[in-house]
Structures are given as C-alpha cells and as structure tokens.
C-alpha cells in the first residue's frame, strides 16, 4: 500500500483526491489534510458581500467528502521536510510515498502600510462580512478600489467586485453621490486576453468608474484617508484593497520556495514536480506560468494525478500541464462573461472572450454545481 499525502483540501486538493480515488494504480491510499472543516468557493465571497448570503450557506463540510481509498483529516500543517517528505501537523507525523503541496495563497495586508488600519477587503470570508457591514452604512462619498500587488487570486475578481458594488449602490440610490475609482499596477485587466480587457475597461467606463492602469497604491495614511501613489495622493472615504498575496509561512519555512519566483514554490511547469523526488506542488502556491485561480489549480490536479499514477507504476508520465481554465466574470445585472484561457498547450497563450449574458450566468452556476457533485456526496 502506497500513500499519497495531499496538503490542502481546496480547489486543487479536492480535484486531485477525487481523481486519485478512481485510480487504476491498485494499492493506493490517499490522505488529504486541511485545517478547516469545510470548503468554500472563492467566488462565494461575492455572494456574502453583495447578496446577503450567510457564510454558513456557502460552506460545504468535509464530512461530505467521501471517496474510496481517500481519508480526510482536519489537521494544521506545521512543518514540511521536502527531502524526506515528512510532514508534521498539530496532531500527527506523516511519512508518505508521494507528497502534494496544495496549500493555496495567504494574504499579507500588513505589506501595505495603513491598509490594516484604514482599508477593507473581500478576499477573505471575514473581510467580506466586515465590508458588507461597512457598505450597509455607506451613504455616498469616494470609493477607491486598488489592486495592491501582483499576483493575486482570480484576475477578474477585483473588477467583478467593483461592478457589483456599482450595481448595489445604484439599487440603493447612493450611486449618484458616490465616485468610484479603480487603480491597478497592471497595464490591463487580463493581459492574456485583449478582448476581455477591452470589455472590462468599457464596462467600467459605462458605469462611470474611473480606471487607472499601471498605478500602484504604496501606502494609506489613515489619519487623512489618502492613498499614496507614484503620481501623488488619492483621497477616499472608503478604501477597498486586494491585499498582497504570499505563500503560506509553513511552505516558505520548508525551503520549497528556493528557486521560485517572488517566493512561490518552484515547480517544473510541465509536470508540477518540485526539485525534490516524489514532491509536487499545484494551485495558488506554485510558481507555474498561469494566473492564481481555482480552474488552473483543477487543471494542474489532472496533470499531477497522471504523473503520480505513472510514477507509482514506474512509467514515464505522458501528460504535460496545459494551463487551461475557463473563468466566468460577473458584470452585474445578472450577466456573466467568460474567458477560456489556454496558457501552455499551444505555441502561444490563447484566451478568447465571450460577452456577458444570462446564459453564461446559468453556465457558471452549473459549473460550480458539477464540481460539488464530483467532489462531494449528498
Ligand atoms: C473573491 C474571489 C473570487 C474568486 N473567483 C474565482 C472564480 O470565479 N474562478 C476560479 O477559478 N477561481 C476564483 N477564485 C480563486 C480561487 O478561489 C483560488 O485560486 C483557488 O481556491 C486556489 O486553489 P488552491 O487549491 O491552490 O488553494 P485553496 O483553494 O485556497 O486551498 C488551500 C487549502 O489549504 C488549506 N491550508 C492552508 N494552510 C494550511 C495549513 N497550514 N494546514 C492545513 N491546511 C492549510 C486551506 O484551509 C485551504 O483549504 C476567487 C478568489 C477570490 C478571493
């Protein structure tokens, strides 16, 4: 019996465990560890923020994660030794034959001075809940939305949040007395897809949202409610930031980030193997040449599952990571667009855009439901 240990039961970990549970590689035992007792889709934070959805309603308990040969353990990973593949948690020591690190990305709000004191975010469940309360009492003024650092999860999500904010303020009758400005250090919203970028920029303009690209907010001054940029100060009544992302501290301490870009886990982009035998990394924590998004973590899980099965059979893995993913983008008014990105399977990345429609809104909901049916029971 050989053991595959998956650290993290998020988008990537759930997909990998599900695939391995149906593995033809006979005597395989899969153990999945997560500190949480439940899974929540990233985009559910938009429902918590704008649709009054209680966080409990979007949580899927891991008790429903039941597959043959797969064991879920709620434990906190405290140390990883990639040389020996030994993993320590708050409850046990694990010595697997194959180790997969899928621990996602953490936030580092303290990296932007003043942000913790005077800013709001909706990238965490607590942050979305806090911002929802602040918005309930917001009666107009200037809102500054800023991407504070790159990379960050789900490149369209800051724009989705801003368009849904416009919609909410409009519905409440406060949009007329609110200015919304969006600032990003990136040159365009979705660089791989000029059509998607153009559609987003045009949608912001149509909603009267001022958009500044290539501009980074460096710090906030909480006493004056101003944000500092290279080009001067921007004042705000409400600051909403997409916090700087970082690899989880336990991953950084493991040495797996040595050789990775900007502190992310170094992997072979075609196989998602790390330089350590029998150790893979996938999803947001990995330094693969794709954006941080669940759909790419899912595609990476497909490659890693094939790689592990080949490794355990003593065969050469035939599958190469394609870096494919379909991202649905909320534009407000119940309309959703999509971009179908393929970063690695052709000679150059491709990412055609489909304009927003009610049909794509239904497709987004169906895609989420299909994942839940695949990963969970009941
Ligand atoms: C507002 C928002 C909207 C988004 N919309 C989309 C979208 O529409 N489509 C899309 O594809 N992506 C979207 N995303 C991004 C998506 O949520 C992430 O990219 C995706 O979840 C990454 O998958 P992962 O498996 O790498 O990490 P995660 O899903 O984050 O999973 C990592 C897991 O590791 C666990 N963990 C971390 N540290 C420890 C530890 N020390 N011990 C034990 N467990 C630990 C965590 O609890 C977590 O369950 C969105 C994100 C946000 C914030």
UniProtKB/TrEMBL annotation:
Q: Which Gene3D superfamilies match?
A: FAD/NAD(P)-binding domain (3.50.50.60)
Give the matching SUPFAM superfamilies.
Answer: FAD/NAD(P)-binding domain
Organism superkingdom: Bacteria
Domain FAD/NAD(P)-binding stretches:
3-135, 191-288
- Can you name this protein? FAD-dependent oxidoreductase
Provide the species name: Nocardia niwae
